[in-house]
Amino acid sequence: MEPNRRPPWDAYFMEIAHVVAQRSTCLRRRVGAVLVRDKHILATGYNGAPTGLPHCHEVGCLREERQIPPGERHELCRGLHAEQNAIIQAALHGITTKGSTLYVTCQPCVVCAKMLINAGVVRVVYQGDYPDKLAREILAGSSLLMERYGKNETAGKKGD
pLDDT digits over 7-49, tens only? Predict the structure, then answer.
């Protein structure tokens, strides 16, 4: 990038999501999320255990111990996903997520997809894949605009 060139908004917020992911305590996948509206950050989240509970890097990964593949049995995990933590942080501080965009380093799972839809998020910009076919089906049937960062791929309906 040229010295005086500012990054486009999507690049700027995706870079912040990658920085947020560095706080993750998950042993399998480090994910960061940033909720944005009107070019202002509303909340951030990374994957890890609920506040006050031991993190996987301290007590081990339940999913690894039980040999659960990625994209399956989401309830068998000590941690919350980055998207969930971003939504929870916004709620905790009384910030509406309606009309917001989520920047996330990994495609949302089915649980997060449903939460994002009901939280009023209108656009998700994601970078990495996640092996969750049901999530892709639900997102494709929703009005949530999904954009893969750097590829101009979209799923879901625009603007319904």
Answer: 999 999 999 999 999 999 999 999 999 999 999 999 999 999 9
Residue 147 belongs to what H/E stretch? strand 145-148
**What is the Cα–Cα distance from 135 to 131, expressed in whole angstroms?**
9
Helices (H) and strands (E) in the chain, counts: 6, 6
CB 124 within 8 A of CB 102: yes
Catalytically annotated residues:
83
Per the CB < 8 A criterion, the answer to whether 29 and 46 are in contact is no
What does the buried/exposed string (b/e) look like for 109-148 if buried means 16 or more CB atoms within 10 Å of the residue's CB?
bbbbbbbbbebebbbbbbbeebebeebbebbeebebbbbb
Report the DSSP beta bridge partners of residue 145.
Answer: 123
CA-nearest of 133, 101, 138, 146 to 119 is 101
60: left (phi over 0), alpha (psi -120 to 50) or beta: left
pTM score, whole prediction: 0.90
